Task: inverse folding
């Protein structure tokens, strides 16, 4: 039985020693430990993979004791995950297919260890992909007037299927606080620029107009401020004067799908922690 | 005798054919031709390296005939450069040494084919490098009140030495239109971010606060709007939560010096053309 | 009507002028010209996109005249392509799905302008993808003993469907000269290393054993010598001691699919020329 | 008082817990802990930065107790470094100046915290740089016949100045086991290719002949087998058919100097460990 523990707390002397001794006493072997101190904020972060080789003590007891012995005295925020439970991932899309295809082909081939209960879209264009991969597809149109109702409908599906996190795979709508508040740091977006440059609409057009020599893509957790949430992953590619906007868009598609998939994998493997609108990404 | 011709004009049918036939008639062999059409702006760009193998016709005649036969009918803006004339490059610095060291070591080893008549600085800190490389160093302090006088003094040196272009090698002052107007698209700056993100002061601090996963450097021609001139070259490097601002600055130094040197080389080799606040960079 | 002309010939004075004048006389406007001289081999390469705006002269006449006026006197090898004819691409696969998924999703979304008459595989594993995308799938098992017969069967399909080029999308078999000779510089392979490092089998294992800090993928035209054909495209990604072989393979998958797709696009857009076992890749 | 401890030993349960408790008992606070397990070789690696804030116990006692309590029972190989002691770095060069300039400018500006007692060269060409930076320069010519004597002379200087490690900054000679045995994993070389491709002489020529689309540079510890030692750092840059060998060499220079400097910094900051001819590079 393998588990992953994520911890953050005020930086103090002796934390690593205390936590590793605790795991040891509980019969666990630490398979991987990664730790970080944000010296500006004076915050300590740790990610621990432990192997209990069959002798995991009762998980409720373990957690209670961890709380009493460590979490309380060190003022920790922490979570404890069983590695063999697949999280439930909802996909939101609009008309672009490249990110959807990329995620679904990774899912289908067993590279991405999630369950995908459904795909939601404000358009019908990608129904054919849902059919190709035999995943339920809910078409929920969104207009200015129906947005509130549409989000209520989305929330119903999210609740009904006990969705753990949401991936906006080029979903061209702004998600409101109604949904964000239910999924804090659990909605992953892909933006087609190297943020903070070119936030908002039409970033490739803006990049072309500015004459940049590099374009990028950014995957981040969604917060209320548009394109301003904690960045999980970014990548870039070179462009030149010889590329048209159409070329930017084509090159960008490859960036977007790779960057989004990497971010989703990091989230699924519980390698991301959020603090002060930034991420700690464990390797 | 080798020469380089740079042309831009409204896009029209038959230009390449007309120009290449002209060179051919004048006894030149086209060694390299690079061409670009900006279809949005409907502008044609061309860069031609020709080899006249000793039989270059009188350059004044050549230019007059080119003007009459091609430049006028096609409404060209063009320039004609003899490849063996080294341009004169002035260096402006403040306190950071890495870009200065990098440029001077390339100059000293014959990699950068320019003359460097002098280094100007608003501080005395880098005098020792000027001495190491035996290049005149003029210390011209700049304060709010003395800026106008200081720039006049700078211009005197620039004029006296017939400087062709200026490189701001981490010169921490804003250059005013007084100098920019004398050197349009001839002042090369290095900015320590992937513009347009983090223009202005302290970009590494801003990048750190935003939690980006990639930092960059941008070399551009200086225009009146700060950090908004035509971009010549950009590059980036990955960073993570484990890097402090100090680490960003250290990693950035390597980017800055490489990106600035590349931009300077492109300018020296006449591979840059500017149009609509963007650059065409020939390969 | 747009066409693309590819030329290579011994380097001589006046070629560009002669060719561009010819196109001009035939009523064509040169939309894009890219040219290269290999000075070591003394060979001239050119790629010309021309737009005839409806008035393309009879193609047979055009080609005959081009032959007489240019190809013969300049000893050119050349080809002339109508841009709106989609080439026919056959896909060979084994068990890995990532390159196949990537190519088919680009095809399905109209990004990759080819026809795909069929997929051939020596295994049955990927039948489901062929079904998802409704493309004929021929299962032709290959063993040492049946290889010759299997390749004859493959050739029958290739001939029957008038296939223009073949993509080995992680086809784990060596293709013999029997097929290579029918498709010279028309079989595109993806090898999972930065060639020439780690040619042959199990490159990720070899890279791991050597302790490299960068892994790569290489797309190349297939020649008789294994993994030694002209390289079309390469890319790399950073790895570290913390990555296992399994991690190398996972990271490599993303490289492989992107690198192969780029190479296929370059081939389809007729931006590749082969000479002396190397490629000229036009931008 | 800050110190760095490097440990490797057979992987066992409870090591992290035992070591961190030990540091804690000795009055140290763990500032940074990085750990790695090579699961194939079943070896555990750890790097610990500790801060004793003035109360470092007697270092001899500390080390003896560490040996008795931890190193012996866990069969550790370990080392303990005081962070404020600058290591002594000898530079070996031949005729190329770019790596030398790069390292010396970092040294001079305080970016590289080492002492440089001398530069050794088999040629006189770079004397001027040694003079620029006021560092002793010993010219020791090397021919087939004098190699043994030359290396004896080199060793005398190395011993006399108590040199800690050697950097071959494009030193074009093969270093024999005579010196390697005295400096195991303490001689850093820069090779101008992405090893293992193009080991040995003239890698840029070989890369050009093969038609690769990416060239690289590799910094590694020197072992008896040429260009086959543990790799510390690698980087690459894109090239195309339009680049000549001379272009490869020019682009390569920038790679070489950056990659070598990074490797030297990693070594100086004690972030490298060697095992099974591979490196663990802590971040």
Result:
């Amino acid at each position: 039985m393998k588990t992953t523990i994520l911890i953050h707390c005020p930086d103090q002397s002796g934390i690593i020693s205390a936590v590793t001794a605790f795991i040891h006493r509980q019969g666990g072997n630490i398979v991987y430990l990664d730790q970080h101190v944000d010296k500006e904020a004076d915050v300590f972060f740790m990610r621990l993979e432990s192997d209990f080789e069959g002798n995991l003590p009762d998980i409720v007891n373990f957690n209670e004791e961890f709380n009493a012995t460590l979490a309380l005295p060190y003022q920790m925020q922490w979570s404890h995950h069983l590695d063999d439970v697949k999280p439930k991932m909802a996909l939101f899309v609009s008309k672009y297919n490249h990110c959807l295809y990329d995620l679904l082909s990774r899912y289908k081939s067993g590279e991405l260890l999630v369950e995908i209960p459904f795909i939601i879209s404000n358009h019908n264009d990608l129904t054919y992909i849902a059919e190709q991969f035999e995943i339920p597809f809910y078409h929920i149109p969104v207009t200015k007037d129906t947005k509130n109702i549409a989000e209520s409908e989305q929330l119903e599906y999210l609740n009904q299927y006990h969705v753990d996190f949401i991936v906006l795979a080029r979903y061209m709508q702004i998600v409101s606080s109604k949904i964000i508040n239910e999924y804090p740091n659990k909605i992953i977006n892909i933006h087609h620029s190297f943020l903070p440059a070119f936030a908002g609409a039409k970033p490739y057009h803006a990049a072309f107009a500015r004459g940049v020599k590099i374009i990028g893509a950014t995957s981040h957790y969604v917060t209320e401020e548009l394109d301003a949430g904690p960045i999980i992953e970014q990548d870039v590619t070179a462009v030149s004067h010889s590329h048209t906007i159409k070329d930017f868009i084509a090159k960008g598609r490859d960036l977007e799908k790779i960057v989004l998939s990497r971010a989703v994998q990091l989230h699924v493997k519980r390698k991301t922690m959020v603090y002060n609108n930034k991420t700690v990404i464990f390797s």
